[in-house]
Amino acid sequence: MSNSEPPAPPLKPGAPTDDTAFFGHPRGLSTLFFTEMWERFSYYGMRAILILYMTAASAAGGLGYSDKQGGLVYGIYTGSVYVLSLLGGWVADRFIGQRKAVLWGGIAITMGHVFLAIPAVPTFFVGLIFIAFGTGFLKPNISTIVGQLYAEKDERRDAGFSIYYMGINIGAGTAPYVVGFLAQSETFRGWLASAGITPETAWHFGFGAAAVGMALGVVQYVAGGRRLKDAGLHPTPPKDAAEAARNRKRLVTVVACIVGFPMLVALVGATGLVELTEDRVTYGTLVLLLLIAAGFFFAMFTVAKWTPGERRRIIAILALFFGATFFFSVFEQAGSTFNLFADRYSENSVFGFSFPSSYWQGVNSAFIILLAPVFAAIWTFLARRHKDPPWPYKFALGLILVAAGCLIMFPGGKIGEAGGKAGDHYLLMLYLLHTCAELCLSPVGLSSTTRVAPKQIAGLAMGVWFMGTGIGNYLSGMYAGWTGALPLGQLFVTMAIPPLLAGVLFLLLGRPLRRVSEA
Q: How many domains are there within the chain?
């Protein structure tokens, strides 16, 4: 990580502002829009049923895990999906470029979902590993390519990321209905029974639908690659042979650690040297994730050679990381705690029509599709008048709104505690508030990271953003494990406190963070 390394080849000077072929944006945005749409279809389709499949009884085709066990696996998986973005971003920056990283990641994700479609416990975990690594390569790099379609001060950037975010949510919004119908619907299970297929295998038909979605995304990405021109095509070249050798050595070391650490933990547990209880694994993994984050930022500040302006920008990246961690620790409970609440404590019916609990996973994306154009228009309107709020204030609003969503759930949690079924309006209000929070923070965070990051670590900086998302996802799994241990009302209030305090902190530090971002 040295600022003496030359940046990746830039786009042609006129391209970022002159290309308006896709709704006023570069035509390459269309390729990335549909690629990410199908990737999110596969990811959120699978996520809609993941914890439900793990906690379902064996007789119902599930794994029969407890809430704590299911939450632990869910947290480790969803957390690693994003933490591995560090590796994916760095490999793209140094070795293969963002374009190849996205392609290889998409192929790995497709294979992972194919493994999940096989009804066997070993292939289930193999599938999760493939998806985690594949997403780690695809997610940070496709977002980086989006940023490279625009000039640094192009006022269309935030609006472009909002449009890109619509693609994400079209995929994420439709997937729970397709996958949920296949996995949970009594109608589909009846069809399986009439065809002589065991109905309990319906879960794996849902996983199979996710595989088809990602395969379509890979085909679309290859077919539309020419629209991207030079964006993400080349890695940052090393300054000399010695630098190239160091990069290769670092890669071998990282891969050895990723492979060797789980094997070491398994060996220690098998020999009985340390009893691997659920709590020890849960909190041990959290400590490990925090140490990785701390070590990474320490290395960035002390090992690399940065100009004073670049060093201040890294402070802004650190703030973006913390904002993502606090936000996604609550927001990503849509697939864990709130998913379990919907399955056990919500009415799940509209006008007398009952629906699978996994359908709730599509509500957030439906709100995104409705509201994303509104937020994009607002940011563009304000930007043209030079009144667009700086990103720290947008972060503050997002964090406060996501905390408010948890507080809205408090009365519904008390109903669940009493053994009743909460009305559907509680989850509806939750997802509305969380959608507004997401539109204030997530696309703005993606855009700000691509803008603030020093050019030679563009992919790695995006990996930092997703590392914060990953730790937040892991915390969401921990919260899910508390679903049966804490009273629901208390659980929802507990979840609201950290993002609420973080939002107030961003309000107080808004001006200093704006200054370091523009250094």
A: 1
